[in-house]
Amino acid sequence: MFARTRPAVADPLPWAAFLATALALAAGILLHARWLPLPLLATLLALLAGRLWMRRRGMGRVPAWIRLAIAVALVAAVAASLGSIFGREAGSALLAAMMTVKLVEAESRRDARVILSVTAFLMMASFLFDQGLLQVAMVAGACVLLLAAMYELDPGTPREAREAAHRAYSADGLREALRHLALAIPFAIVCFVLFPRLGSPLWGAPQDAFTGRTGISDRMEPGALAGLALDDSVAMRVRFDGTPPPPADRYWRGLVLWSFDGKAWGWPDAAMGWPDAAVVEPLGPPVDYEVTLEPTDRKWMFVLDAPLAAPEGATLTSDLQARAARAATGVTRYRGRSAVRYRADVQLPRGVAYLARRLPAAGNPRARELAAAWRAETGGDARAIAARALALYNESFSYSFEVPLLGADPIDDFLFSVRSGWCEHYASSFAFLMRAAGIPARVVVGFQGGLWNPAGGYFAVRRSDAHAWTEVWFAGEGWVRIDPTSAVAPERVSEDARAALSAGSAWQGQGWLADLRDRFDLVGFWWNSAVLQFSALRQRALFEDAGLDPDATTTLAGVMLGAALAALALAGAILGWRRRGRDPLRDDWRAFCARLARAGVARHANEGPLAFGARAAAALPAHGAAIRSLTDAYAGLRYAGEAVDPRAVAEWRRAARAFRAR
Amino acid sequence: MAASLPRGPWQRLLAFAERHLPALTRYRRSEPLPLVLHKRRIYILPTAFGVLFGVVLATMLLGALNFGNNAALLLTFALAGAVLVALPRCVHHLMGLELHAVRAAPVHAGREALLEFHFRIADARPRHRLALQSDRRLVRFDLDGESGLAQLAVPTTHRGWHPVGRHTLSSCWPFGLFRAWSVLHPDARVLVYPAPEREGPPLPRGAARDAGLARTARGDDWHGLRDYRGGDSTRLIAWKASARQDRLLVREFEEPRGDDVVLDWRDLGGLDPEVRIARLTRWVLDAAAANLAFRLDLPHASLGPARGGEHLHACLRELALL
Fold first, then answer.
1. Is B227 in the same domain as B298?
2. How do residues A295-352 score in pLDDT, each as one tens digit?
3. Which residue out of A4, A124, A135, A529 would a mutagenesis test of the B interface target, given it has the greatest number of B Cβ atoms within 10 Å?
4. Residue A76 and residue A143 share a domain
5. Do A575 and B89 touch (CB under 8 A)?
6. How many domains are there within chain B?
């Protein structure tokens, strides 16, 4: 209660506030754990732990030259490990490093406040890497730590400081942090929905904003997709308007690779600007569908093979790739229309035919020999050559993720010695054989399959569904999809990569685990559609639905302000309601007094229960005894101190509520 | 307080504003107790930390909008919402407090008076991390339950009634982003006794003028018990009896009167009045310390002869207000 006076200027950072600040900063740094370079992360955490230990042991300040050396070394480490000090990753790393240095020298509350403010920014920056539900949950936890640390920074009484000597967070601080965040939810939702969005960014995204995510890349080397095979996270979700096509037709076309450099397939140098549009002639009813694509940081979009029209905001290239104008840094949703049975590009321009047959001048001699032999045997019949190649795979090859490293002639190694591999090996070697035999061929990379989610009514296509196949051009038929993997492991196409390797686990199959997975995925889908998908366009549509003119800025500002205030008022109302609910005895006493006031005897503000009881009993003699007994009992309960019998309180409340003055 | 503190231009401006714009400074003038803190007299502004955090939130908002990052946007709004919820809660933290008394045990001028601010809390909500501030003194305190007090030591310079003066009750609860404050200028005063003269002639011993018995704190014949009064020696407290009665009692004894001391204002003619008061104060204290019965003759009053704490305080009070 009583504190010694002390000057108001001193601003030292007590242990509890220091520890709370350090923990909040550590939480902010750990949010970036998955993309910070591991040595840097370990260094930062070690610095934090070391500083905490020194502080606990009561050691003095770290000398300025050591702090400076640490700062310089950390900046150099960031620049060395990330190649730059600008950009998304380097920026976050630098911020984390600088705040660690700041904590090493932090001695005042002011320092801690700066650290906490920047930690809030660090928390936001983590969403530039991952906006998934798991990240959201972790950031929410870090938010609580942040606010609780801010609570600890407020200088309390010396008594509180003594109690705080052995802890980081007080129960009060954690409770207030949770309470404030919970009460902020209505406000956050209102602002989120109504706050005006930018149609186009004010400044460009950092240069490395599009390299961070794992996923399909524009080069297909053996092994590139294998890393994805065990990644069960969702790459996209698809809802079909009508009946979904059968699994064997669910090929999600991503990008088309033309050039082979002896090892890897990549994008061509020339075909990108090929002027002619693809000619796709549907041979069946079109399929309409809606794709919700997780961030890829790439410009290509995945469409069901073969697309009849480009999704909104994208263009179809001459080789049927859908390319968006901007990289998909956030969750994107688009509609597509495709034909599962189709005929494409019956006429092949000479330039394209050249690109589709081009191989490096040398390398993989045995594969070339084999192709030449087939060509001689079949008399150049493209269909027959393709059938020979597939028959070869079918006879003696197996599907496996465990493939030894291939040598300088990877196709030869694969075809003649290893004889086992996964889709990339098959697609790559098949396209090579076709080209070596003089048949136009190209490699397509995308997804194949998708898991039906009955809870959400959509197909979840996971990263492990990444797939590579080939397209071969036959005279008179155009480009025909040939998936050599299906010659080896048909179940890869009818089910998925994992099922092709084993009989399938519970996670893949049916049962409660699959059900749980479906439900978890559904929550992710909702999060994507409701939150991450929300854009300037959706906002406009929302305003129009509500009968508001999306261009009337004054009206919208008014609506937003009003709604935000209403949200805050709601928070206040919840607080007020909780507070009233906390002392039921007092509430019933007030109700009792109000009843007497209506009967003509109002209690004065400064009148105690006993005096009021005497006066009311005198004024209402008919109820005198009842009033006196209630007021006396109330005074007893209210001022009896700690040891109040809850049963007596309950009894009094019953009696008070039953009392009627008329 | 009445201390002559350095007055900067800001203080002068405030003083000017109070003289010429009373409506704006209504709650800064002294008011009769009790003082209830209602919303119209509680002010709130963001602290430097609040401004910094606001700037960071604005930056986060800009970044989230620029990158079209909805999760970041939601985080920014959630934190901003928490800040905005903290604002009324900070005001609410002071609301409903009632300052119903300001007391202080009398001290001699030049010593620090310990002002006790007695608060009542109608709704018994715990109010933690409050700060009470006078010009250069600050005390932090918590209030739990329905009542509580804050003690603030303030310097005194001269004898007489001291107005309690203007104090600021403030709190940055819960996150230190905002500071809510209210100016408390209660119309209350505390008594400051004159400072005793440091050096001077010893206590004059006069002749006995009366005989009889006096109740004193020392002596042979036990007389009885009476309520504890400020100034009584703790050694005289009858602990067992006090425990039985639930209040502090002290023992009293009867002693035959010895020589009475007469301290007369008029005997000190020719001296400066303040010096006279200081000397009388010291004599009064010396006499009380020696447990002598004494009489104090002042221009308008004559006290005693008597002994004991009550008489001492009566004399000091007269001297303070002379």
1. no
2. 777 777 899 988 888 888 888 888 888 888 777 777 788 999 998 888 888 888 877 8
3. A124
4. yes
5. yes
6. 3
